[in-house]
Amino acid sequence: MKKNILMIGIGLIGSSIALSIKETTKNAIIVGFSHNEKELFGAKSHQIIDKINLNLEKAAQEADVIFLCTPVSVTLKLIQELSTFSLKESVIITDVGSTKVEIMNQAQVLLDKGYTFIGGHPMAGSHKSGFLAGNKDLFENAYYILVPTGNEMNEQMTCLTDLLTGTRAKIVILDAYEHDQITGILSHMPHIIAAQLVQQADDLMVQNPISKKLAAGGFRDITRIASSDPKMWTDISKSNAVILEKEIDNWLVKLSDFKDILKSDKEVEIFNFFERSKKVRDEIPVHKEGTIPGFHDLYINVPDYPGAIAEVTAILAKVNISLINIKIMETRDDIFGILRISFKNEKDLFLAKEAVAKHTPYESVIN
Ligand SMILES: NC(=O)C1=CN([C@@H]2O[C@H](COP(=O)(O)OP(=O)(O)OC[C@H]3O[C@@H](n4cnc5c(N)ncnc54)[C@H](O)[C@@H]3O)[C@@H](O)[C@H]2O)C=CC1
Ligand SMILES: O=C(O)C(=O)Cc1ccc(O)cc1
């Protein structure tokens, strides 16, 4: 029997989940709904979804499983709206939001109606948005957190985890508060810190424009995520505000401690500060998940970049490698440009590097 899966929101995460489900669940029919018709037709023409239904109530009534893949504030409203519909008794409703306490609290309206809600959060993604960045391998080897309510039946939990096998993610069960504490430090704080650092650099760039051209290496690494969608991060910050306020206070204290040891020129303590971080960072296990850090980018140094774009894309087409994005990053005194070309997977990235090395004089680096 066909399984009717309703995807609400076909952006980066919704489309990646849809594509991964299509890999393994052959009897799934993926129905798409979003507030953006153009996106829905685009996703259908890219075969990410099988059908479009512009009537949310009707689409929800027909669904066996509903995925909410929208910004957190929209997910909260949709949960409320779904609770007013007459859904299938066996329906499983799940979400992908980056916070869980507020969403699980809101989901009580569904539980009160006897419906099943299982919170979800795939712990991989990227700073990119939209269905064109969707990738069936996005969650490979990443953790996919599920937050049960205790009301779901075993077979419903199994149905959801079966559906997620195509993601090739590792399922982890957490409670909502534990989830928000962990992601507060490991995911939300880094975005706030990256955003603030970019603003601090921007102030300097205004005073001294040459500094913009010098931004490289470590600055680029630590600030990549500052290019993420501001709406998404507004919602996440507001939703996890209590935990984030505490962590920001903690951050300020620790940074001020560092300022003190710097001021008093305590060399050993300054060394210890960096040494402890290095030790901890070096010991963090590297799990090669699909796309954290969320992208497979090749940076190519090119003189005369308009001509080089055509040259490089022609070579990639010839060796049959599809790219998902191409961007001119910066110019050096208008003599050199850097092309950033993004690929869907590591294999294409390495093949592209090889092709560029073989067929062009341009230097390229993987970052
Ligand atoms: N981007 C990432 O790396 C990750 C994001 N998440 C979470 O996944 C969710 C979706 O994020 P992305 O896919 O990255 O965002 P996205 O911007 O790529 O997609 C958002 C989708 O929601 C739809 N949408 C927005 N407002 C809507 C409304 N009022 N009604 C119906 N649809 C609406 C958009 O049309 C779009 O399809 C967010 O809650 C985010 O916190 C979770 C893990 C990783
Ligand atoms: O781009 C990155 O590295 C991210 O940080 C992706 C990300 C964004 C939000 C999440 O809830 C989980 C992962």
Adjacency order of strands in the biggest sheet: 3-2-1-4-5-6-7-8
Biggest sheet overview: 8 strands, mixed
Q: What is the string of helix and strand elements? A: EHEHEHEHEHHEEHEHHHHHHEHEEHE
Kindly identify the CATH topology of the domain at 3-174.
Answer: Rossmann fold
Q: Over the alpha carbons, how many angstroms does the gyration radius reach?
A: 23 Å
For CATH, the homologous superfamily of the domain at 3-174 is named as NAD(P)-binding Rossmann-like Domain
Shape, principal axes of CA atoms = globular
Q: What are the salient characteristics of this protein?
A:
367 residues; binds 3-(4-hydroxy-phenyl)pyruvic acid; single chain; aromatic amino acid biosynthesis; binds 1,4-dihydronicotinamide adenine dinucleotide; Rossmann fold; 12 strands; VC0802-like; EC 1.3.1.12; alpha/beta
Description:
With 367 residues, the protein is α/β, with parallel strands linked by helices. Among the domains are: 3-174, Rossmann fold, CATH 3.40.50; 296-366, 2-Layer Sandwich (VC0802-like), CATH 3.30.2130.10. It has 15 helices and twelve strands. The chain has helices spanning 12-24, 37-45, 56-62, 72-82, 101-106, 108-112, 154-163, 176-207, 210-214, 217-223, 230-239, 241-263, 267-283, 305-318, 346-359; strands spanning 3-8, 28-33, 51-52, 65-68, 92-95, 116-122, 143-147, 170-173, 296-303, 323-332, 336-343, 363-366. The strands form two sheets. Strands 3-2-1-4-5-6-7-8 form an eight-stranded mixed sheet, sandwiched between helices. Strand 4 (65-68), helix 4 (72-82) and strand 5 form a beta-alpha-beta unit. Helix 8 (176-207) crosses helix 12. It is globular. The two termini are 45 Å apart. The mean pLDDT is 91. It binds 1,4-dihydronicotinamide adenine dinucleotide (NAI) and 3-(4-hydroxy-phenyl)pyruvic acid. 3-(4-hydroxy-phenyl)pyruvic acid is lined by residues 98, 123-127, 187, 225, 292-294.
